[in-house]
Amino acid sequence: MSNICPKSEKCPIFQGGVLKRASSEQIYRNLYCNAGKIKYEKCMRFIVSEKVGKPAPISVLPNSTKSLDDIISSMS
Question: Domain for residue 1, yes or no?
């Protein structure tokens, strides 16, 4: 089993170029994307995507403090 998030292929944070600092994206990749199932399942982008069946909005960061309900309602 891979330690990499199964959603990484389509995730703008994983792919890079979204945040102003590439080092910030690398930190997120290290903390969430490449850190195994226990970590990527805590990523808010992963959680939103699993719940709604499509990618999370680009504005949602892995450590977003917005609630799942707030994020989903803002997607409508």
Answer: no
Contact yes or no for 42/32 (Cβ under 8 A) = yes
Q: Would you say residue 76 has pLDDT above 90?
A: no
Provide the domain limits for residue 53: 8-75
2 or 51: which leads in pLDDT: 51
In this structure, are residues 39 and 66 in contact, taking their beta carbons and an 8 Å threshold?
no
CA distance 45 to 14: 11
- Angle, helices 44-52 vs 68-75, to 10°: value is 60
Burial class (CB in 10 A: 0-12, 13-18, 19+), 18: middle
d(C-alpha 26, C-alpha 5), whole Å: 14
Residues 12-41: tens digit of each pLDDT: 999 999 999 999 999 999 999 999 999 999
